[in-house]
Design goal:
Structural class: mainly alpha
CATH architecture: Orthogonal Bundle
Strand order of the largest sheet: 1-2
CATH superfamily: Winged helix-like DNA-binding domain superfamily/Winged helix DNA-binding domain
Number of strands: 2
CATH class: Mainly Alpha
Number of domains: 1
Strand content: 5-15%
Distance between the termini: 27 Å
CATH topology: Arc Repressor Mutant, subunit A
Number of helices: 6
Length: 146
Amino acid sequence: MDPRGTIGFELRELSILLIRYIEKEKAINNLEDIQSLQAWTLGYLYKNQHKTIFQKDIEREFSIRKSTTSNLVKRMKKNGFIEEKKGTQSDKRLKQLVLTEKAIAQIQAFKPYVHRLEEKITENINPQEIEQFKETLAKIKANLSC
């Protein structure tokens, strides 16, 4: 069976092209070499600064395993992007994830780049097609969710 043309193959190829484009842009613009998941996590934490975010929230948001999230948090702490505040009123074992000033500065540097990336991705695609694509992706993700 030729995989070309299957949804799985096309999504994989799209993912590869997206990563390649991001890596090229990071090099051209001298942006810090942050892995994609770290960048998405920084964006999530930045967007939700007004909320108390824990490791389990990251797991849920990005559909990743506990071990992956644990390693992600360790790397982000090591890189100086997040700090953990120990304990909460309801559960002293939980550690709140908080952005550092370094992370906020990095997010500010990435904002124009992310905007350009989104423009590139959606170039020559009308808003209705974009909305339909998002709806279709949501259905595929729901089909694959465990």
